[in-house]
Amino acid sequence: MKILVANIGSTSLKWRLFEFSNGVERLLHKGGLERVTDYPKAIEDCLAQLREAGAIRSEQDLTAVGFKTVIAKDVTGCVHLDARVLAAMEAYNGLAPAHNPPYITGIRLFAQRMPGVPLIGLFETAFYQFAPEAMMRYAVPEAWYAAGIRRFGFHGASHKFIAERSAELLGRPDIAERARRLYVGGTPAPVTQAPFRVISCHLGGSSSITGILNGVAIGNSLGMSPQSGLPHNNRVGDLDAEALPYAVKALGLTLDEAQRQLSKEGGLKGLSGGLSNDFRDLQEAATQGHAQAKLAIDVFLSEARRWIGGYFLQLNGIDALVFTAGIGENRAEVRAGICANLDQLGIVLDLEKNQSVRATEAVISAPESRVKVLVIPTNEELVVARETQRLLASRS
Predict the structure, then answer these.
(1) Residue 98: its pLDDT value, please?
(2) How far apart are CA 15 and CA 31, in angstroms?
(3) Per-residue confidence band for 173, with pLDDT thresholds at 50, 70 and 90
(4) Region 351-376: what's the mean pLDDT?
(5) Record: fold of 2-123
(6) What string of DSSP letters covers 116-130?
(7) Whole-number Å distance between alpha carbons of 335 and 49
(8) At what angle do helices 255-264 and 243-251 cross, to 10 degrees?
(9) Cα dihedral 176/14/156/86 (nearest 10)
(10) Which CATH code is given to the segment(s) 167-375?
(11) Backbone phi, then psi, for 166, in 5-degree steps?
(12) Distance between CA 91 and CA 67 in Å, rounded?
């Protein structure tokens, strides 16, 4: 099988091509295009690059195209992207305005260009379909819940990768296999050995924290939309329900303008007084005495610790704390700040090792730490390719 994974943005197209053969998976090619204004041409350019690299002879060599889709009404898991699913994605455009519309457009263009190639979506919400109901509900009237107002959780591909890989690295192949087969078996397999408890910290331009028990998510800091949880680069994160109508009245904003500000001028950018939404800029400015840059970092660390603490309690302790994504993999200062003064919880960093690790798999906890602290670079595209391959294999 050759599976192309297409990552679609409003002005970008990135891809990775994987081959699955006799139990071996290989990355054959990766590439990307920025500042895309003509998506049909971008798809042609992608296929041309794959041909020039010798990865395919034509699109007929592709077994499927996989997409890291975000959210759809009443649809989750790994599914064929047919008209029904695309309509369900459109119904939730308002919850993911930066993600759903570009993906829907891109998927339809891929379908036009290669009608004989299956198009498969792995929804970001999929990893949370087995979470306890009490962890996924808001305290809203029943009619609101019936209308779809609930927690969904996101970054599912990344956190699922961490669930599998952390179990592999820490000697729990049973848990790795349980996580691996989540979307194939229907319900998670029973666990006969000791529980394996992980908190996965996906920290980047968009951040979330997930509690994982025996390879299965129990919850995620992101809720009904990506506009929740931790502060993101531009997005506000958690906000009191009364803040939005109050701001509309007090500041004389329209609802649309208020939503735009929360999604474009909030988060780290808002906390820093508009200085930057990039953690590297904020850390540099903070070291030079910029008070608002330091505040942005402090709020981010505080919120991360709050969510980690919540899942620590729900899990009755943890075996591993994992950092991943752009900030988690590369910013030693962030990892150190989150793990500071947690020795009574069994979390002790090896400060020298932590400082030396950037975007590589490593255990960065001290020998005396009861909890293993790890850095694991995420690989969301590989998860999409694997789940696409498993879906097709299960139906062949």
Answers:
(1) 83
(2) 6
(3) very high
(4) 97
(5) Nucleotidyltransferase; domain 5 (3.30.420)
(6) TS-EEEE-TTGGGTT
(7) 38
(8) 110
(9) -120
(10) 3.30.420.40
(11) -65, -40
(12) 18
